[in-house]
């Protein structure tokens, strides 16, 4: 396993981690100031400052993009299906323009949450079929753009409203059906927050192998967790054995960035940007 | 599938559903008044009025007990292991005294949460081993008391602090190792709240079969869910396809009670007991 204790060469900052403290250009300046080599921006943050300005900042600071957040939200009724398709193709285009390592897919839950305005449905099996169909269709487009797609299995507590792909095994089943040759065009974004609880996690990581491990995200699970979405913890403040998971991922040959992604309304989003980044760096060294 | 639309003969009330509105004797009176035939009480509620008084109330009203809540919390450090063992044996004794259909096991998470005072550990694999060892040991005692043990897989959001058995498949693996002959002494309590999201749910129900399906619990998953523990919804108010799950359970031959278990601090716990029970009955007919 790589030694992270001496530097933060393999730290990436998911820019949602400090989204309340500044715009993407200010976040980029701060990351550069702290010697951070990689970021992973969100589409709304890019849109707010413009794709060209983002591209210029990425080039100026020499950033790598460990990923681009995010495509997905595939379940939709007929009235919203074209919107979902177009939106995802634009996400691929933006990711390609920024030379991201992959486009992260949060696949969506039931259609009324995934694409608001869609008719209400409680049919999870149908939502899952629509997800797989949507990824299959997008994959052709993404291949032509040379942009790998990373399915992010989300914690089961988000099954209804954010993603009906809820385990690594389920994500890998989709990968195997749509990309049986393991070409590198389709894989997973493994976020410890979503998968740490899974008794099949380590078997899943071995099954994934290097070809499917496109991104590795870290944060921590707090006890108690006070909000289902916005109470993620800083690495080391919760119960996840992060380094044991990183060890398993690296045993498969993964040698990419460790991307910090923390949504924390009551804590980290209220602190100064520099304090958050300083803490991310320290915890990257001690707790990842 | 049984027709629940005409009566509520197969409705059971888990007494936590109205725990804030009265003690167990008052709850029993109310259930009897509404023609409810079965309840499932919690140990602290029994302790508050006394086991003998509970027994007398159960006899007076002719209640069946669809289950008894709850044993478990197995992970513990050495200093708390005897406490865990003794506590679980008392739970079996109480369940037997009340002639419950099964003792429900919420198995516990990490030892510091499962048995407070235990040394801090983040080792989920170890906690899972302790759970299996604990169930194995308790099973011998429960068999001699004629009390079936029902492992309740809990939603993954409770993995750290309440139960590190988080999928039906994982629970069935334990059952198969400890009771390979499927004697009826060990099975699962299937609560739709905990398992509805699982893409392997229906395969798991088929695998469980009648021998392992000891209890069936219902409520609903609300979107948004405002609290990880205390924001369960009334059947029909959320996104779970409850009747589809009941259909699968009954296809295996399950013909027991449908037990309503709702923890709802901001809503159902604030309403009058009779209103909650009237609603449970109506939704049992229309949404289960």
Automatic annotation (TrEMBL), chains A, B:
<dbReference type="Pfam" id="PF01261">
    <property type="entry name" value="AP_endonuc_2"/>
</dbReference>
<dbReference type="InterPro" id="IPR050312">
    <property type="entry name" value="IolE/XylAMocC-like"/>
</dbReference>
<keyword id="KW-0413">Isomerase</keyword>
<dbReference type="InterPro" id="IPR036237">
    <property type="entry name" value="Xyl_isomerase-like_sf"/>
</dbReference>
<protein>
    <submittedName>
        <fullName>Sugar phosphate isomerase/epimerase family protein</fullName>
    </submittedName>
</protein>
<feature type="domain" description="Xylose isomerase-like TIM barrel">
    <location>
        <begin position="29"/>
        <end position="270"/>
    </location>
</feature>
<dbReference type="InterPro" id="IPR013022">
    <property type="entry name" value="Xyl_isomerase-like_TIM-brl"/>
</dbReference>
<dbReference type="GO" id="GO:0016853">
    <property type="term" value="F:isomerase activity"/>
</dbReference>
């Amino acid at each position: 396993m790589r030694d992270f204790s001496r530097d933060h060469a393999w730290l990436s900052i998911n820019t949602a981690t400090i989204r309340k403290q500044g715009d993407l250009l200010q976040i980029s300046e701060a990351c550069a100031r702290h010697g951070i080599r990689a970021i992973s921006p969100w589409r709304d943050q890019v849109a707010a400052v413009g794709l060209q300005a983002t591209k210029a900042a990425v080039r100026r600071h020499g950033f790598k993009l460990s990923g681009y957040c995010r495509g997905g939200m595939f379940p939709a009724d007929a009235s919203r299906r074209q919107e979902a398709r177009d939106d995802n193709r634009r996400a691929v285009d933006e990711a390609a323009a920024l030379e991201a390592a992959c486009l992260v897919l949060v696949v969506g839950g039931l259609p009324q949450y995934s694409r608001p305005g869609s008719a209400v449905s409680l049919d999870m099996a149908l939502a899952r079929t629509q997800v797989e169909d949507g990824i299959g269709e997008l994959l052709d487009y993404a291949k032509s753009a040379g942009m790998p797609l990373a399915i992010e299995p989300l914690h089961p507590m988000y099954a209804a409203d954010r993603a009906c792909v809820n385990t690594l095994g389920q994500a890998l089943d989709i990968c195997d059906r749509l990309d049986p040759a393991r070409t590198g065009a389709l894989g997973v974004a493994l976020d410890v927050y979503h998968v740490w609880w899974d008794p099949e996690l380590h078997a899943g990581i071995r099954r994934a192998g290097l070809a499917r491990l496109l991104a590795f995200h870290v944060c921590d699970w707090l006890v108690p967790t006070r909000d289902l979405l916005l109470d993620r913890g800083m690495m080391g403040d919760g119960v996840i054995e992060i380094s044991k998971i990183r060890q398993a991922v690296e045993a498969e040959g993964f040698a990419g960035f460790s991307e910090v992604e923390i949504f924390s309304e009551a804590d980290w989003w209220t602190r100064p940007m520099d304090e958050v980044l300083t803490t991310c760096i320290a915890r990257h060294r001690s707790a990842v």
